[in-house]
Design goal:
There is one protein chain. The protein starts with a helix and ends with a helix. Helix content is 41%, strand content 20%. It has an eight-stranded mixed sheet. The chain has a three-stranded mixed sheet with strand order 7-13-14.
Length: 431
């Protein structure tokens, strides 16, 4: 979240930023509550000082008349202070609840716009694949090759779940190991994170665990929530800690399952594996000094591109517009792969993203660092998708499809999965 004093001192800047980010939030009410909170806190500190002074004077053997006055004053303070403490707690809860919905500031170079149609393409590697036969989408390919079973999963678990079968299982494992090997070479510490996080952790990172806008599954009895990304568990790894500046940057890579409600997600581009309730992902997360975060964002993007280039499909990089940025992100790049089976003639589909969240997450999670013996400062936090297996499978199947019905596997994955082609189905057996 943004610093409350910063909001108070920069009302118009914050108001304009929320407008660009398509967030409807009452900035004036936040400022009013913040001022009220400060007023209550000032009065409370004054009363606590009087209480301490009262206790000191009681120990100095006052006269009977003075003692009587001190006792009466002590009784009044004993009643007034808890009332103010209750008001302070309620006011702070209200102001933090509202302030948590205020998005991060936005990089001045981020394009302005309402949705992903305003994202700006800044790079393209390879040209869209034009097949000399009618392309199939990944669902058709998976059904023909017995790779994915959506129907049984829908019966067992519900829509937007799936069973991976046969070579798809080996590809799933190969993608995870390939991504882990790449990020480890770049100095990331590999981890397997928990799939559950406390609700205060998820909200500290910038996700809403509850409410209509939530994309997260919450557990019964206040037992936490299923993570939508390892960004949540990696970002909270050092919460309430003061790090040494000498240890920065800290680079973590997390392998985890990801669970998302995807409420309201529909349409032809959401079919199959592209938008599901559960998938496996390798996530990169970095803690850096504030002055290094812009350069680190470019480094994360370069690693994502290295992974995408190894998978040998065309992709492009887009600079995400203001209306399509998530709340914590200051700037975000997406990599979109070409998917020949998407729509009538193919289209681009997001497969990874990387974001610089500056100190927005660190403030709620109280993650700071100290330079020598100086005052602790908030770190900057960045995240980036090394691989989202389900979407990578979409791009691999659709770009690797051959005219005979087989699928060519990217060369970089062959050592991990043990095959370079998923053979075409036996026509006689299919009949």
């Amino acid at each position: 979240m943004l610093d409350l004093k910063f909001i108070r001192d920069n009302i118009e800047l914050v108001r304009e930023n929320t407008r660009l980010r398509k967030v409807d939030i009452d900035i004036d009410e936040i400022v009013r509550l913040y001022d009220e909170r400060n007023s209550i806190l000032s009065e409370l500190e004054s009363l606590r000082g009087r209480r301490n002074d009262n206790a000191r004077r009681m120990k100095e053997r006052p006269t009977e008349e003075e003692r009587s006055k001190l006792i009466e004053e002590g009784k009044a303070l004993k009643q007034k202070i808890p009332e103010l403490e209750h008001r302070l707690a309620e006011t702070e809860r209200n102001v933090y609840e509202l302030a948590s919905m205020v998005p991060n500031l936005t990089h001045p170079d981020a394009p302005h716009g309402d949705d992903d149609t305003a994202n700006r393409e800044i790079k393209r590697v390879g040209e869209p694949v034009r097949l000399d036969f009618p392309p199939k989408d990944h669902v058709e390919l998976a059904n023909a090759l017995d790779l994915i079973d959506f129907e049984t999963a829908a019966d067992v678990s519900g829509t937007k779940f799936y069973y991976l079968r046969n070579q798809a299982v080996l590809l799933e494992l190969a993608l995870s190991r390939y991504a882990v090997d790449v990020v480890t070479r770049h100095g990331f510490t590999p981890t397997v994170t928990p799939d559950i996080a406390r609700e205060e952790v998820a909200s500290g990172i910038g996700f809403q665990p509850r409410g209509e806008e939530s994309n997260i599954y919450t557990l019964e009895g206040g037992e936490g929530c299923l993570i939508g990304t390892a960004e949540i568990t990696l970002g909270a790894y050092y919460r309430n800690r003061i790090l040494s500046a000498d240890d920065l940057p800290i680079k973590l890579a997390g392998l985890s399952h990801c669970f998302r409600r995807e409420a309201g997600a529909a349409g032809q581009f959401s079919k199959g594996l592209y938008r599901v309730h559960q998938f496996t992902k390798v996530e990169m997360f970095v803690y850096v000094r504030p002055e290094e975060s812009d350069a680190m964002l470019e480094e994360l993007l370069a690693i994502e591109e290295e992974i995408a280039q190894g998978l040998d499909f065309p992709y492009r990089v887009v600079d995400t517009c203001t209306g399509d940025l998530g709340g914590p992100a200051y700037r975000k790049y997406d990599i979109e792969a070409w998917m020949p089976g998407r729509g009538e003639s193919g289209d681009w589909g997001e497969i990874t993203s990387t974001s610089n969240c500056t100190d927005y997450q660190a403030r709620r999670l109280a993650t700071r660092y100290r330079e020598n013996n100086g005052k602790p400062r908030l770190v900057h936090m960045l995240n980036g998708t090394a691989i989202a297996n389900s979407r990578a499978l979409v791009a691999i199947l659709e770009n690797g499809q051959q005219s005979d019905g087989s699928v060519r596997i990217p060369e970089v994955l062959v050592p991990y999965c043990g095959f370079d082609t998923i053979p075409a189905p036996d026509r006689e057996q299919v009949k």
